[in-house]
Amino acid sequence: MTDPVSILAVPTLAWIPFASPMPPPGAWWWLLALPLLIAISMIWKAVRLESLDRYWPQVFGMAAQLFLGMAGLTVALLLLVRFVIPLLPVE
Amino acid sequence: MLLLSKTFILIVIGAGAVLVGRGWKAYMLAWALPGLGHWWLGERKRAVLIAAAVLGLLFGGVLIGGIDSVDQREDGPWFLAQAWNGPLVFAVDFANEELLKKPGRLGELMSSPAPPKAPGGPPTEVFVSSLKGIGVVNDIGTLYIALGGLMNLVVMLDAASRARRNGEEDA
What we know:
heterodimer; A: 91 residues; B: mainly alpha; two-stranded antiparallel ribbon; 62% helix
């Protein structure tokens, strides 16, 4: 019988690109948001801009805004969970 | 579930083509291959940028999460968003069914960690592929492809709108 640990270990032992999931990036998983935000910004700006002359500055500007927005939400939730919620009365 | 079946999703996409009216060709071309609708309208640079981004999200998602990131049977609600990427995502789902869920193709089928008939476990013994994604990377891959699909819906509607405007100018 296969134990659960061996199933968890398989992706890190032999990664077959496009077939199995990539090895877990550990603490750096959030960096995977960057290509996602850039691609979303590329699509949105390609659709919305009348002229594509200043396309790339617009794309990176939007991606930076999205990233900062997400980072801000992260900090706000962190403050709420770590500092505000513990102040609430138990009863 | 009927609402999440491939047939129903294809009917929804087809119904969209009817609703957009005169821009239906650009709409369907944009679904057939991201960017193709704009290419057909003569917006070549826009088309290349759209194709690079949408296909980048699709192939990036499969690279990160494996082909198990697209699974109409087990992740139906996610597939509802992913389906807007076009036939390519249906091909990835087919590859998932054929390569990972059938024995002897890719990887091997292993007994599920949850013992049968245990509380919260499956009613009978379940076999899963050794390449099945069960970690956060699989979730991220699924998210990439789903967001790519929803963004391609925006592209499809834009292509239809531009086609209608071009038609009005020509008339």
